User: Which sequence fits this backbone?
């Protein structure tokens, strides 16, 4: 029993003993009635053992018998209170065990979750480093390809200028050739005669 209950029930036992002693003087006069000191000793024994189920024998009807009956009713009320308190203590102990189990499960879940978060974070950091390396490699590759394309475009522009210059020169030469042919055909024709083929 808890220390708080001992104090409460000790006070109750003291009150019962006082009642027994007060009624003792009258009870001594009657034959067969238990002595008040015997009643007080029995109540003290019940309290010391914590056996609230035990009851006193009321003996013959009279003041002492009525006192013993009242003590028995008080013991029954104490027994009921103790039983209720024990039931609540068991329920509390079960609740505490359940709470401890829940807390333990929560701790395990938290530890598992933290471990998973650490692992996933490490995986993501590794993936980030890998992707950064791939991006750097691809960027360098694209720069190189861009440089190569720029060089080819420069070559094509030069070739285009050369070709355009050549085309212009061909057109000029064709015009000169026509002019020369026109000049030759005038020279080789008789004046006023039909043109030769």
Assistant:
């Amino acid at each position: 029993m808890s220390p708080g209950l001992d104090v409460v029930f000790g006070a109750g036992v003291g009150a019962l003993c006082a009642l027994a002693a007060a009624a003792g003087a009258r009870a001594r006069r009657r034959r067969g009635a238990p002595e008040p000191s015997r009643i007080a000793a029995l109540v003290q024994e019940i309290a010391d053992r914590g056996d609230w189920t035990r009851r006193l024998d009321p003996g013959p009807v009279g003041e002492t018998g009525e006192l013993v009956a009242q003590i028995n009713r008080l013991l029954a009320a104490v027994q009921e209170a103790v039983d209720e308190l024990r039931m609540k203590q068991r329920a509390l102990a079960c609740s505490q065990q359940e709470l401890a189990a829940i807390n333990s499960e929560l701790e395990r879940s938290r530890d598992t979750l933290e471990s998973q978060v650490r692992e996933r974070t490490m995986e993501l950091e590794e993936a980030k480093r890998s992707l950064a390396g791939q991006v750097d490699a691809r960027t360098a590759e694209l720069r190189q390809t861009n440089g190569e394309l720029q060089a080819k475009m420069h070559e094509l522009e030069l070739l285009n200028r050369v070709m355009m210059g050549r085309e212009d020169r061909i057109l000029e030469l064709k015009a000169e050739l026509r002019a020369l042919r026109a000049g030759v055909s005038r020279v080789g024709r008789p004046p006023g005669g039909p043109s030769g083929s």
Notes: The mean pLDDT is 81. Residues 3-90 form one domain. The helical segments are 3-27, 36-49, 63-187. Residues 21 and 72 are 16 Å apart (CA to CA).
